[in-house]
Specification:
This protein has eight helices and seven strands; from the N terminus they run βαβαβαβαβαβαααβ. Helix 1 (16-27) links the parallel strand 1 and strand 2 (31-34). It is 47% helix and 13% strand. It has a seven-stranded parallel sheet with strand order 3-2-1-4-5-6-7, with helices on both faces. The longest helix has 29 residues, at 101-129. It has two domains: 7-185 and 224-250, 3-Layer(aba) Sandwich (Rossmann fold); 186-222, no CATH class. The radius of gyration is 18 Å and the shape is globular. By secondary structure, the protein is of the alpha/beta class. It has helices spanning 16-27, 41-54, 68-78, 101-129, 150-170, 188-201, 205-213, 225-236, and strands spanning 7-10, 31-34, 58-60, 83-86, 132-137, 175-182, 247-250.
Length: 257
């Protein structure tokens, strides 16, 4: 699954799923552009570490994914791309009648609208080259729902619809567009929630993971960032040239129920 000579932009990629995807694409030989909304020495050092580890070129470009102009500016600043992975996302949980409007707007902007802007900016260049891969990180919540997550579920369902639309518009041009739908993935943010859950439920670590956090995930195991990265790398490979407009669930059987 060599991606040598390809440039990949991964939004929201300084930790968690985004970083796992960036590492996998770099391991396959792609030049990688990391992104987040900050601009620190640590951000640029992370790009340098990935470049050194995989002997590829890696850069960090800051851009606020809640700002449409900044989203499009990211693609321009990178000089276009062959691979675009839309991963940036945030979450807020509340009953719909109490859901803060500002949180709704921010989640829709970052989790959905940012992908519209980055795809609109990147797709013409992919068409011109006759090759491109767009991978949108959706969620099991792009295929099903949970209470108190109205904005997140709406945005992720929207990402699945956007994926299908872009796939149809790009069909026959050498460009594919697909969505990965993870269930619970063991990221630093999820890891940080475990001690509080242990305290709240009076359970040990393994019981909290199995019976509380992974209640809806039949495998009772977290997906890993490496697994999501490997799935993304496959979708970017020539072996996946005829896979487009679809979702791939990495959710331990969640959406099979």
């Amino acid at each position: 699954m060599s991606l040598q000579g390809k440039r990949a932009i991964v939004t929201g990629s300084t930790s968690g799923i985004g970083l796992g995807v960036a590492e996998a694409l770099a391991a396959a030989g792609a030049e990688v552009v990391l992104n987040s909304f900050t601009d620190t020495e640590a951000d640029h050092a992370l790009a340098e570490r990935i470049a050194h580890a995989h002997r590829i070129t890696a850069r960090y470009i800051p851009a606020d994914m809640s700002d449409g102009a900044a989203c499009r500016g990211l693609i321009e600043a990178a000089g276009g791309c062959d691979i675009l992975v839309n991963n940036a996302g945030i979450q807020h949980v509340a009953p719909i009648e109490d859901f803060p409007v500002t949180q709704w707007d921010r989640i829709i902007a970052i989790n959905l609208t940012s992908s519209f802007h980055t795809i609109a900016a990147a797709l013409p260049g992919m068409r011109d080259k006759g090759w491109g891969r767009i991978v949108n990180i959706a969620s099991a919540h792009g295929l099903t729902a949970s209470p108190f997550k109205s904005a997140y579920v709406s945005a992720k369902h929207g990402i699945v619809g956007l994926t299908k639309t872009v796939a149809l518009e790009a069909a026959g041009k050498g460009v594919t567009c697909n969505a990965i739908c993870p269930g619970y993935v063991l990221t630093p943010l999820v890891e940080a929630q475990i001690p509080d859950q242990m305290k709240t439920h009076g359970m040990d670590r393994e019981t909290v993971i199995r019976e509380v956090m992974l209640e809806r995930q039949p495998s009772r195991q977290f997906a890993t960032t490496d697994e999501i990265g490997g799935t993304a790398a496959f979708l970017c490979s020539d072996a996946a040239a005829q896979i487009t407009g679809t979702t791939i669930s990495v959710d331990g059987g969640w959406t099979a129920m």
